[in-house]
Amino acid sequence: MKKENFSVKDMITTALWIAVVTVVTMSIVIPIPLTQGYVNLGDSVVFLGVYLLGRRNGMIAAGIGAALADVLIGYTAFAPFTLIIKAAMAFIFGSFLIFSAGKITPQSKKVPASSILGIGLATLLMAGGYYLAEWLITGNSVTPVVSIPWNILQGSIGGILALLLMATLGGIRMPKQVQKEEKPANVSSKDNVEQEVVEEVEAEIVSTRQNDGF
Q1: Under a CB-based contact definition with an 8 Å cutoff, are residues 43 and 152 in contact?
Q2: Cα–Cα dist 174/177, whole Å
Q3: Are residues 177 and 74 both part of a single domain?
Q4: Do 178 and 101 contact (CB within 8 A), yes or no?
Q5: For residue 202, what pLDDT is reported?
Q6: pLDDT at 194
Q7: Which of 123, 103, 122, 105 has the alpha carbon at shortest distance from 113?
């Protein structure tokens, strides 16, 4: 029952964050000169979503939310590429968050280098990904070069905003939910499971005896 309740909550929060990514991406749209792309603030909530929801759900929200924004704004040709690129960005940042889990206390305002590196690599992937996307869409390999510095700027600004928001939320750290999802159970967790099994067996025995009239 607990697993089902968590799954429902998981789906609801992910769906809500898909809407957040879509709305924030659409809030500020600046067309990139000479190209068919645009600059937006969506990367801030892409990174923040990974922090709040975990790597897996953050990837889903980032990819679907950003791709939906492309469709609604009129950049439909980019939507399939956006789905993959934004999900990949979330995966990279989430992986670095997992790496830094436990190294920063909840009260700390220090930004771990691993989080900054994760944002940097995710931003470079985005810049390269959209260059390739526009090359494939237009058949022109030269003009899309103009979009590279713009996308790097977009990712950098989005990353800075996300880190500031994370610090405001209580320190740059891996949420407990993500630690449970991504990390294997430790010895104490196994002991708890075994204890629960023993208690359930004992309860079964008592119930059987009562039904049999003992």
Answers
A1: no
A2: 8
A3: yes
A4: yes
A5: 60
A6: 57
A7: 103
